[in-house]
């Protein structure tokens, strides 16, 4: 119903519909996708009385603006930003009642990259493989927001919980990422692994929902050639031919042939999602774990 919807007035640099993602389809070549900063997404939904898996809007750097076609309770979390209703400032990180016909705007991020806009009832985009998430790599899910687009809202579940204040971890001036080494750390020289732990890396402007790219020194390789394609996990730290690590995020490819020097545990990826271009990055390698192949499987030598 168009009277239970909103109209996009300003889509921003990249605003997508996101939920908790489509789990269990990697064997089909479909990544999980979903909100990059899942704690912020979950919090926004809780503030407006939704289940944590309801779909929100994920903005990128410049925010977005929408005009409501029904009254709605709205909350904006994630990257702190100015929030206005018909030009009047309202609270960030809190439930706000927005009347029908009003213009809601989440402005440019003051710190961080991605803000999350939740509406009571959630965004009712069509489900694809069980999820409403936009996957920018495969094109699954709803298209990124565009001027004039109309998106439906679901039915509110009930009363909005009373909240005095919400936690916010803030955005650190440096992104520190623990890395479990392997499975292909032996493709790099000892000097290359030292570069990983001591190099002066920064977040590259080319970063996106697929991966956080880095600028800085190259990791020295111990082997030439590339691997046969193998599975890529969320948080994989892949090293392409230029030697600069790429951290795979929610829309990452499910296979790849460049060596993975390590994997960043998932609980640290929300911080990576909020690291703006130019942010210093420090990798902290942990003890290597066994990544041996299942019995009967031969690991290709890639040479």
From TrEMBL:
<dbReference type="GO" id="GO:0005524">
    <property type="term" value="F:ATP binding"/>
</dbReference>
<protein>
    <submittedName>
        <fullName>Biotin-dependent carboxylase-like uncharacterized protein</fullName>
    </submittedName>
</protein>
<keyword id="KW-0456">Lyase</keyword>
<keyword id="KW-0378">Hydrolase</keyword>
<keyword id="KW-0067">ATP-binding</keyword>
<dbReference type="Pfam" id="PF02626">
    <property type="entry name" value="CT_A_B"/>
</dbReference>
<feature type="domain" description="Carboxyltransferase">
    <location>
        <begin position="27"/>
        <end position="298"/>
    </location>
</feature>
<dbReference type="GO" id="GO:0016787">
    <property type="term" value="F:hydrolase activity"/>
</dbReference>
<dbReference type="InterPro" id="IPR003778">
    <property type="entry name" value="CT_A_B"/>
</dbReference>
<dbReference type="GO" id="GO:0016829">
    <property type="term" value="F:lyase activity"/>
</dbReference>
<dbReference type="InterPro" id="IPR052708">
    <property type="entry name" value="PxpC"/>
</dbReference>
<keyword id="KW-0547">Nucleotide-binding</keyword>
<dbReference type="InterPro" id="IPR029000">
    <property type="entry name" value="Cyclophilin-like_dom_sf"/>
</dbReference>
């Amino acid at each position: 119903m168009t009277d239970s919807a909103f109209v996009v007035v300003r889509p921003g640099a990249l605003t997508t519909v996101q939920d908790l993602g489509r789990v269990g389809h990697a064997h089909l070549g479909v990544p999980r996708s979903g909100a990059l900063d899942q704690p912020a997404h979950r919090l926004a939904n809780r503030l407006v009385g939704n289940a944590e898996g309801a779909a929100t809007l994920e903005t990128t750097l410049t925010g977005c603006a929408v005009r409501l076609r029904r009254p709605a309770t709205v909350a904006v979390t994630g990257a702190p930003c100015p929030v206005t209703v018909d030009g009047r400032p309202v609270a960030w990180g809190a439930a706000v009642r927005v009347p029908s016909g009003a213009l809601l705007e989440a402005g440019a991020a003051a710190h961080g990259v991605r803000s999350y806009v939740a509406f009571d009832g959630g965004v009712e985009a069509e489900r694809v493989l069980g999820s409403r998430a936009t996957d920018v790599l495969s094109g699954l899910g709803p298209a990124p927001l565009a001027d004039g687009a109309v998106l439906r809202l679901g039915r509110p579940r009930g009363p909005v919980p009373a909240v005095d204040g919400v936690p916010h971890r803030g955005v650190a001036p440096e992104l520190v990422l623990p890395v479990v080494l392997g499975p292909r750390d032996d493709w790099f020289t000892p000097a290359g692994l030292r570069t990983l732990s001591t190099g002066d890396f920064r977040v590259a402007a080319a970063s996106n929902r697929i991966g956080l790219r880095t600028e800085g020194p190259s990791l020295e390789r111990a082997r030439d050639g590339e691997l046969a394609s193998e599975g890529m996990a969320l948080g994989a730290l892949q090293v392409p031919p230029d030697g600069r690590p790429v951290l795979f995020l929610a829309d990452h490819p499910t296979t790849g042939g460049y060596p993975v020097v390590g994997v960043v545990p998932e609980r640290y990826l929300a911080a990576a999602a909020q690291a703006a271009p130019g942010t210093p990055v420090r990798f902290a390698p942990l003890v290597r774990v066994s990544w041996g192949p299942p019995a009967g499987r031969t690991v290709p030598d890639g040479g």
